[in-house]
Amino acid sequence: MNSLTVAIYPHNLLEKRMTLLTTPRCRLTSSRRPEISRSTVARNAFTLVELLVVIAIIGVLVGLLLPAVQSAREAARRMQCSNNMKQIGLGLHVYHDTFRVFPYGWDQRGMTWSGHILPQIEQSALYQTLIFQESGLGNWGADDGPNEEACETVIPTYRCPSMALPLHMDYNGIPQRVPGSYRGVAGTLATSDDTSTALPDTISMESLDQDGIFYACSKTKFRDILDGTSNTIMVGESYNNPKFVKDGQGMDYWYIGAPQTDPCRCDGGTGGTEFSEVAGVTITPVNAVIRAPLMSGHLMELSFGSYHIGGAHFLRCDGSVSFLTESLAEDVYDALGSRNGGEIIEEL
């Protein structure tokens, strides 16, 4: 019996070993490892859906931030525009302190108020190049003349940063003429550049009898501003757009010199045209070019306005600058344009 047992035992042992060798390794332990699914495999890139979601989120954020950025930039441009007008106001005050009178709006040689205050706004070198005569190189249309070159010189003080126009334009015989943003206030009476197109019972810009500060051959002094310097405006912004023409009148505004005003006469006679290039009136509403499309072009070009939303900057005779809105009452706006109308302005 013992010998039989010894003989069988090795055989059973061999069988067990063979069984162990042929059994899968994972079955050797009682705790089985979980199978790994494809969804839990680590990925090194976005899926198309995830990428589209990210792009959509970025687009929404940009859409929310862009108006705020544009608004901040426009606020900065408005501040710079206001500073420009303050510099102009300071220049006009210094001029008056020196000569005891404000410069005329324009004269028979085509010279304008903005040209006369060049030394007072740190442009003395440019002023010294001007020739004050009607003929020869003194003519604003003389090719390569110093006066023409002055009109082709960019003066940042005379340009609102919000104005959407190129620095130079070929206009009225001046190849590289520089458009301006600010014009003098001639008053409240004129309804056209020329007497022939003025409204009935009104005057034109040819007349020497205006109630503003800057007009043909004007000699306005502080003592003439009977309504008070804080209640009278002397310079205003203008919506300059030479390409917009209505009734044959372009909405074009410039500085230093105006060739078409040359035939102007200071003896009360008529002559010249396009005085609206350097001065305007308050008989028309602010931004009439945009808000009053049915208005006559002869009257529209005399209006003030700006590329800012809702109104325009104006320089008062006391040197302060105000932003007058489009909703300002017409009688108040009209009163601000006259120097001696006797109106009482309660509030703006």
Task: Describe this entry's structure for a reader.
- The protein is of the alpha+beta class and 348 residues long.
- The chain has one domain (78-337).
- It is built from eight helices and nine strands.
- It has helices spanning 2-22, 48-99, 113-116, 124-128, 146-151, 288-291, 297-300, 330-337; strands at 169-171, 174-177, 182-187, 233-237, 241-246, 249-251, 279-281, 311-316, 321-325.
- Strands 7-3-4-8-9 form a five-stranded mixed β-sheet, with helices on both faces.
- The longest helix is centred in the N-terminal third of the chain and has 52 residues, at 48-99.
- InterPro entries: DUF1559 (IPR011453), N_methyl_site (IPR012902), Pilin-like (IPR045584), Pre_pil_HX9DG_C (IPR027558).
- It comes from Rhodopirellula halodulae.
- This is DUF1559 domain-containing protein.
